Amino acid sequence: MDVREVRGMPxxxxxxxxxxxxxxxxxxxxxxVMGQLEDHNRLTALRRDIARMKTILRERELAAQMEGEAA
Length: 71
Hints:
The protein has helices at residues 3-7, 11-34, 41-70. It is mainly α. It has a single domain, classed as Helix Hairpins (Orthogonal Bundle).
């Protein structure tokens, strides 16, 4: 998932996508332990996607907080 895609999404959609990504990461970790995972790079990609989404959510939170202080 690209940063531009995440920035274009509404906050509620990002939260929903974040939940889905955590669930997928859990399932891939389970497959990894069982020895069934073929694409190990997917674990890294999911962790980075989670970090991107959380970063953008935090940026939005801080921006809203700054707007509240300015008013």
